[in-house]
Amino acid sequence: MTSPQQYVQDKAAASGSSFYYAFMFLPPQRRAAITAFYAFCREVDDVVDETHDAQLAATKLAWWRQEVARAFDGQPSHPVMTALMPLTAEFDIEVRHLDAVIEGCQMDLDQTRYLDYPGLQRYCHLVAGLVGEVASNIFGHTSPATTEYAHRLGQAMQLTNIIRDVGDDARRGRIYLPLSELQQFDVKAHELLKRESPWGYSERFQALMCFQAERAHRLYDEALALLPEADRQAQKPGLMMANIYRTLLHEIEADGFQVLHQRTSLTPLRKLWIAVRTHWRGR
Fold first, then answer.
1. In this predicted model, what pLDDT tens digit does every residue of 134-179 receive, in sequence order?
2. 18: how many CB neighbours lie within 10 A of its CB?
3. What residues contact 83, with CB distance under 8 A and at least 6 apart?
4. CA 174 to CA 177: how far, in whole Å?
């Protein structure tokens, strides 16, 4: 029978995420905590991505809310929560953090469009900013500024995901790019959903995507400027993730934002190399 610890390890490894490569450099106890927390995020996110019936997905998210409450009352039933709970007190992981992840995924069920950037920021705060906060707690920090750095970095990485996944999201009927900005660049929602040429990679679309990428780069820069020198060593796994994600963003830009018909990714070897290089250089 698979132990809860092996379950979360397998869940994290199977995702192929950039996060997994940063976990490898952590001490065992911190690695166990971030792996269990990441497995929780994957479980909840998979409810939305893999359950095609919205009502069933909502029922599953409601179950997860109950499971989180039970777990913090000392009665976890899912292997992810069984693995995570012994580590929550040590690394300041609270109910509100887990509930925020669930709330963000609920937004994916309830909302397929965002009118403006402040609306999108709220979503990014739930699914990425607070996740960054938990990660920074697990990695270790001494300054409140590091929490703000983690929030800003989480949002930058989420915007990178949104840029990468424009085509994949369109297939699911979702548009995360703010509608006010589509209007600003004269890109129509129905054009995004169709993902068709010749309009697809028009100058209008390119200008829109450049605007999105510039915002993400600005957030990366702001995040790194907030990170205190005293916490830089401890937060090295976050810097690894930032470098992997920013390299991905550079690749998408260099490829002319060909995101409607393909999903740009980095090879596992390249992700590992970026993580190792960041570990050596410390930035």
1. 999 999 999 999 999 999 999 999 999 999 999 999 998 999 999 9
2. 23
3. 4, 5, 7, 8, 32, 35, 36, 39
4. 9
Tens of pLDDT along 33-52?
A: 999 999 999 999 999 888 88
Tokens in use for 215? 């915002």
- Cα distance between residue 42 and residue 162, in whole Å: 17
Q: What is the CATH number of domain 1-110?
A: 1.10.600.10
CATH superfamily of 112-283: Farnesyl Diphosphate Synthase (1.10.600.10)
Contact 7, 15 (CB under 8 A): no
Query: 112 near 171, Cβ under 8 Å?
Result: no
3-state DSSP call for residue 113?
coil
Question: Average pLDDT over the chain, rounded to whole?
Answer: 92
pLDDT surpassing 60 at residue 84? yes
Q: pLDDT (tens digit, 9 = 90+) per residue, 128-144?
A: 999 999 999 999 999 99
User: 3-state SS of the chain: helix, strand, coil percent to 5?
Assistant: 75, 0, 25
Identical fold between 1-110 and 112-283: yes
Query: Which pLDDT value is given to residue 16?
Result: 65
Chain-centre distance for alpha carbon 47: 15
**Res 201 pLDDT > 90:** no
**φ/ψ of residue 140, rounded to 5:** 105, 135
Q: Residue type for 274, please?
A: I
List the domain boundaries for the chain. Answer: 1-110, 112-283
Which of 146, 111, 108 minimizes the C-alpha distance to 127?
Answer: 108
Query: Is pLDDT above 80 for 283?
Result: no
- DSSP secondary structure of 11-24: HHHHHT-HHHHHHT
Under a CB-based contact definition with an 8 Å cutoff, are residues 140 and 92 in contact?
no
